[in-house]
């Protein structure tokens, strides 16, 4: 009646609906947290695929992480909203995101788990600082 393929496909669809529903009701702050979480998951999967020798899956996972960092986290930076005092911070974060993308691309090219670890660690440092400034927690 149900094959394992159908169960995996159904579970994947259910998970996507959950993520999409969560994203639709999330605050801007929560959306950035979700991007950090997605990048961390993609990097973890890439690490697993390097260890198992699955070159295609590794490339897909790293591409996903690059996309999240470049088209999600970096693209969400807004120097105008940061004002003059925050403009330098925005520029520094943009540079750091560029560096993280370079490390991810190098990890893909050379199957370099250490480069993945560095990118993951840098993202985690930014993510933990971002979580500390949660506006919902400050209001409560």
Describe the structure.
This is Flagellar secretion chaperone FliS. The chain is an all-alpha fold and 140 residues long. The chain has one domain (27-133): Flagellar protein FliS (Four Helix Bundle (Hemerythrin (Met), subunit A)), CATH 1.20.120.340. 89% of the residues lie in helices and 0% in strands. The chain has helices spanning 4-25, 28-52, 55-74, 79-110, 113-132, 135-139. α2 packs antiparallel against α3, α2 packs antiparallel against α5 and α3 (55-74) packs antiparallel against α4. It starts with a helix and ends with a helix.
What's the quick description here?
With 140 residues, the protein is mainly alpha-helical. 89% of the residues lie in helices and 0% in strands. The chain has helices spanning 4-25, 28-52, 55-74, 79-110, 113-132, 135-139.
**DSSP helix count?**
6
Structural class: mainly alpha
Helical content stands at over 70%
Shape: globular
Q: Are there runs of 5+ residues with pLDDT below 50, and where?
A: 1-15
- The CATH top-level class label: Mainly Alpha
Number of strands: 0
Which topology does CATH recognise? Four Helix Bundle (Hemerythrin (Met), subunit A)
- N-to-C SSE string, H for helix and E for strand: HHHHHH
Architecture, CATH level 2?
Answer: Up-down Bundle
For the record, give the distance between the C-alpha atoms at the N and C termini, rounded to a whole number.
Answer: 50 Å
Keywords: Bacterial flagellum biogenesis, Cell projection, Chaperone, Cilium, Cytoplasm, Flagellum
Protein name: Flagellar secretion chaperone FliS
Main location: cytoplasm
Family: Belongs to the FliS family.
